[in-house]
Amino acid sequence: MDSSAADGGRLLPSRARSHLCVRCGERKAALKRPKTLEQICRECFYIVFEDEIHQTIIDNTLFKAGERVAIGASGGKDSTVLAYVLSELNRRHNYGLDLFLLSVDEGITGYRDDSLETVKRNEIQYGLPLKIVSYKDLYGWTMDDIVKAIGLKNNCTFCGVFRRQALDRGAALLKADKIVTGHNVDDIAETVLLNILRGDIARLSRCTFITTGEDGPIPRCKPFKYTYEKEIVIYAYFKKLDYFSTECIYSPNAYRGFAREFIKDLERMRPRAILDIVKSGENFRISTTTRMPEQGTCERCGYISSQKLCKACVLLDGLNRGLPKLGIGRTKVGVGADGQQRAKRSERNSSSLQGKHGSFDF
């Protein structure tokens, strides 16, 4: 981390550290908080960072004593800080949670195999049991295989859909009551913008929820909903946490990347802009006359879906039939005569998620 610049999210240069912390007034300031632009010392930063996350957990009643909670662990900064902070807060405030690390091995050589080594070290460092589930075991495909079949243009669609379901399947194996993920306020602001750009009203209405999937197999929580990405990086840096910082080799042209750059530009001009976008998303209201998709379950695998077949089954069906682009785009499966014929052909020609490795009940 660059310690020579004094702008938001970075350590203060040595000449600026003569200023006292605005909170304690005793120790020298070590950084300027990205969220508030306050100049504070390292010790006060730890306190406010952890206290804000604790307050978010309490205000939103994210957990109940005795719950089994799976922490989605990728080895990156967000999930590593989440595992560390949540385990600390669990002890300090007596949440009474049974915590686990849950990782998904997408099968990306030179990226995920390396990051999983970091997660395995975190397992020892934090004393949290680790469960790893893989695309290969669940679907019969790795992301390396999928990229060979589909190319780099739409591979993130496959990965996002498969990873979401893989986390649920791993959590089911752990008999978890909840999944927590390291999505921070920057991630949520990006998602708000993406859903506006896509015109996805259904997702726009729920993307700012701190807990999602309450009508699905296992609810998901985001304790970092109001936590800035830059502050997570600073916390990991000061605490000397062990995390993996390389970006996915298949995501340089991901659509989300453009929203991320826009958010960073806004933050440089006005740090509060990130929180304001999330607050705007929270205040969106959908007209009562708007027809929303009805949630049901996939006829094939039983996973939550608004169509006859869930997105994972459609994508996997295309891969298994040698038609990897079958599920890309806005094609609706099972709507109309042609859709019904496609669904029937899919049932006959592919074993989908139940295929090579058995099935999971949700």
Kindly summarize this structure in a few lines.
The chain has 13 helices and 10 strands. The chain has helices at residues 42-59, 77-92, 112-126, 135-139, 143-150, 155-173, 185-198, 201-204, 229-239, 255-269, 273-283, 311-320, 336-349; strands at residues 31-32, 39-40, 68-72, 98-105, 130-134, 178-180, 211-212, 220-221, 296-297, 304-305.
Explained architecture:
44% of the residues lie in helices and 9% in strands. The chain has a six-stranded mixed beta sheet with strand order 5-4-3-6-8-7. It has a two-stranded antiparallel sheet with strand order 1-2. Strands 9-10 form a two-stranded antiparallel sheet. With 362 residues, the chain is an alpha/beta fold. Helix 2 crosses helix 9, helix 7 crosses helix 10 and helix 7 crosses helix 11.
